[in-house]
Amino acid sequence: MLKKYFTLGASGIIMLCIGGVYAWSIFVSPLKTVYHLTTVQTQMVFGLTIGVFTISMIFAGKIEKKYNARITAFIGMILFVIGYLLASISRGNIVVILIGIGLFSGAGIGFCYLTTLVTPVKWFPNKKGLITGLSVAGFGSGAILLSNIVEFLLIKNIDVLDIFKLLGLVYGLIILISLLFLFEPPKTENSKNISENSFSDLLKDRTLLGLFFGMFAGTFAGLMVVGNLKPIGLINGIPEYMATLGITFLALGNMFGRVMWGYLSDKLKGRTAIILALLLLSISTLALLTISLHGILFLIITFAIGIGFGANFVLFAKEVSNIYGIDNFGLIYPYIFLAYGLAGLTGPTIGGELFDLTQTYTPSIIVSSIICAMGIFGYNFFIKKKVSGIQH
Question: How much is the average pLDDT of 47-59?
Answer without folding.
Answer: 84
